[in-house]
Amino acid sequence: MSDSIISIQHLAKNFGSFQAVRDVNIQVNRGDVYGFLGPNGAGKSTTMRCMLSLIKPDAGDISLFGLPLASNRTQILRRVGSLIEKPDFYKFLSAYRNLDLFSRISGAPSTKKEIYNMLEFVGLEGREKDQVGGFSHGMRQRLGIAQTLLHNPDLIVLDEPTTGLDPQGIIDMRNLILRLKNEQQKTIVFSSHNLSEVEIICNRMVIIHQGKSVVEGNVKELLNEEDQIIRIQTQEDAISKGMSIVEKYPNAQVKKIGSDTIEVTLQKELIPEVNRQLIEAGVPIFSIESKRKLEDYFINLLAS
Ligand SMILES: Nc1ncnc2c1ncn2[C@@H]1O[C@H](COP(=O)(O)OP(=O)(O)OP(=O)(O)O)[C@@H](O)[C@H]1O
User: Fold this and answer.
1) What band does 227 get if pLDDT is binned at 50, 70 and 90?
2) Distance 29 CA to ligand 1 centre (A)
3) Considering only CA atoms, which residue is closest to atom 11 of ligand 1?
4) Residues 15-19: contacts with CB within 8 Å, 24+ apart?
5) All structural domains of the chain
6) Chain-centre distance of CA 129, in angstroms?
7) How many angstroms is it from 188 CA to the middle of ligand 1?
8) Closest to 268 measured CA to CA, from 236, 248, 292
9) Tens digit of pLDDT for each residue in 92-119?
10) How far is CA 47 from CA 9, 24, 105, 128, 189, in A?
11) pLDDT tens-digit series, residues 116-150
């Protein structure tokens, strides 16, 4: 069986004369928790819609489970569960009845036990008979995930599942995504604006910006680059001395970014040594903060 779950090459999608997606390239493998990261309007949802065959791309190749999407749509979509819009439920029906109805309409009725198990899995045990109208946004999102799981898909696609949730709701959703991977061996793709969220739960990611995938790969490798950016805050009158010490290190780049702060790019393993030298030379250090290149890169993207 192929380990490639999603392969997208040179995807493009226009809305009229507007190019929403220009060149997106993605590789998702079995068991990945894969993050689509990007600012508003970057093209994340459009990419997801193309990959779920909700809209037709103008160019590019999309394969899911090793099969071209265009010629295997029905077979592929049977293996996918997605939450793209805000989930819509009958407010006056219970959580159980909503899922029961949905499973009947979709032509593969689930048993009562299966639905109860699903509700328990998403943390809604004890609320099975309650009307959905009284549920919080987080509970509805989790009910939406239960709905996507009813037909036991291999791949789950979630568009911004934590947006609008309170801090506890965000933690619950992140834990649920991790349990889907660890306990149910699902492959999960979700979109987010938040780098630290992607860092916490994803093993692979893509940054999409202005319709293009600009960085793609293993999250740990992308974040742990050899060169690090650190910010050192010292005393105003010690800045020049501090800069001249750091500048002597091979390939170090140093710039002053405030009256008492310098920003240094240098090899990760040299950071403790630089720290020691500065202190020995009498340069007081008020704070030393490590910044990752990817974080900087992403913040700059958001600012542009
Ligand atoms: N049906 C449509 N018609 C016209 N323009 C659209 C349509 N759908 C999306 N767009 C535009 O395409 C661009 C990409 O939108 P998309 O929803 O894919 O971005 P996104 O990265 O998911 O953003 P967000 O994080 O805000 O959801 C945006 O400028 C959006 O306004």
Assistant:
1) confident
2) 26
3) 20
4) 19/211
5) 4-223 (3.40.50.300), 227-303 (3.30.70.120)
6) 33
7) 21
8) 292
9) 999 999 999 999 988 788 899 999 999 9
10) 11, 8, 27, 34, 12
11) 999 999 999 999 999 999 999 889 999 999 999 99
Select from 22, 36, 37, 44 the residue to mutate for testing ligand 1; criterion: most ligand atoms less than 8 Å from CB.
Answer: 44
The confidence score (pLDDT) of residue 226 equals: 67
Which residues are near ligand 1 (CB < 6 Å)?
Answer: 15, 18, 20, 38, 40-46
Q: Which residue's CA lies nearest to atom 24 of ligand 1? A: 40
Write the ipTM: 0.96
Question: Nearest Cα to 114, choosing from 104, 31, 87?
Answer: 104
pTM, two decimals, is 0.83
Question: How many other CB atoms are found less than 10 A from the CB of residue 16?
Answer: 6
Report the distance separating Cα 131 and Cα 124, nearest Å: 12
Contact 141/176 with Cβ under 8 angstroms?
no
pLDDT for residue 249 is more than 90: no
